[in-house]
Amino acid sequence: MGRGKIEIKKIENQTARQVTFSKRRTGLIKKTHELSVLCDAHIGLIVFSATGKLSEYCSEPIRMEQLVDRYLKTRGVQLPDPRDDREQLYNEISCLRRNTCELELRLRPFYGHDLTSIPPHELDGFEQQLENSVLKVRERKNELMQQQLENLSRKRRMLEEENNNMYRWLQEQRAAIEYQQTGMEPKPGDYQQYLDQFQLFNNVQNQTQPNSVLQLATLQSHEIIDPYHLQLAQPNLQ
C-alpha cells in the first residue's frame, strides 16, 4: 500500500516546518549531486531558509562564481562596473562644487565685498533686498518682545492675585484670634465690619495699614505684628 498524497501548502507549525525544510534540503542536494554525476551537468543550487540561512551546492570542478558568470553571459545580463559608479560620483561632486562657488560669489556683495565692479542699478537692488531683510528681522524681534511682555504681565497679575489672597487670609486669621480672646460671639454682619476696620500692624509701633498690595509685599518680616497666643477657655469649676 503506497503512501498518501501530501497536500502542498505552507506548514503552520514552526518546528515542523523547520524539520521538514532540513530533511528536504538534504534530499534536494543529494538529488542535485546525483544528476550532476550521472549526466555530467554543471549545476548550481542556492537556497535561503525562512531565517535567512544560506545553503548552496555547485557541481565540481567549477565554482559558484564561475557558474553565475556563465549564466549572466548566456542571459545577456551585464552588471554595472564599479568604476562607472566612481566616475558618476566624481562628476556629481564637481557639479556641486561649481554650484557652491557660484552661490558664494553671489552672496559676497551682501557682505560688503567686491562692490567696486558692480554697476549702480545692481547696487540699488542689493540695497532694497537688505532693507527688506532688516524689516523682517525687526518685525520678528518686535513679535518676540511683545510675547515676553505678555508673559511678564501675566505673571505679575498672578503674583498680585496670590498676594491679595494672602492678605485676606491674614485678616481673617487675625480677626478670628481677636474674637476668641475677647470671648465675643460675632453677630450677623458684624464679622465683615470688624474685618474692614481691622488693623493688620501693631498700633504700638505706629504702623499704619498698607495702602496697596505691593506695599504689603515690600514690608519686612519683623514689621508684621506677632500673632496672639491662643488660650483655651477654662470651664467653671464652682
Automatic annotation (TrEMBL):
<dbReference type="GO" id="GO:0046983">
    <property type="term" value="F:protein dimerization activity"/>
</dbReference>
<feature type="domain" description="K-box">
    <location>
        <begin position="86"/>
        <end position="176"/>
    </location>
</feature>
<keyword id="KW-0805">Transcription regulation</keyword>
<dbReference type="Pfam" id="PF01486">
    <property type="entry name" value="K-box"/>
</dbReference>
<dbReference type="GO" id="GO:0000977">
    <property type="term" value="F:RNA polymerase II transcription regulatory region sequence-specific DNA binding"/>
</dbReference>
<dbReference type="InterPro" id="IPR002487">
    <property type="entry name" value="TF_Kbox"/>
</dbReference>
<dbReference type="Pfam" id="PF00319">
    <property type="entry name" value="SRF-TF"/>
</dbReference>
<protein>
    <submittedName>
        <fullName>MADS-box transcription factor AGL32</fullName>
    </submittedName>
</protein>
<keyword id="KW-0539">Nucleus</keyword>
<dbReference type="GO" id="GO:0005634">
    <property type="term" value="C:nucleus"/>
</dbReference>
<feature type="coiled-coil region">
    <location>
        <begin position="127"/>
        <end position="165"/>
    </location>
</feature>
<keyword id="KW-0238">DNA-binding</keyword>
<dbReference type="GO" id="GO:0045944">
    <property type="term" value="P:positive regulation of transcription by RNA polymerase II"/>
</dbReference>
<dbReference type="InterPro" id="IPR033896">
    <property type="entry name" value="MEF2-like_N"/>
</dbReference>
<keyword id="KW-0804">Transcription</keyword>
<feature type="domain" description="MADS-box">
    <location>
        <begin position="1"/>
        <end position="61"/>
    </location>
</feature>
<keyword id="KW-0175">Coiled coil</keyword>
<dbReference type="GO" id="GO:0003700">
    <property type="term" value="F:DNA-binding transcription factor activity"/>
</dbReference>
<dbReference type="InterPro" id="IPR002100">
    <property type="entry name" value="TF_MADSbox"/>
</dbReference>
<dbReference type="InterPro" id="IPR036879">
    <property type="entry name" value="TF_MADSbox_sf"/>
</dbReference>
<dbReference type="InterPro" id="IPR050142">
    <property type="entry name" value="MADS-box/MEF2_TF"/>
</dbReference>
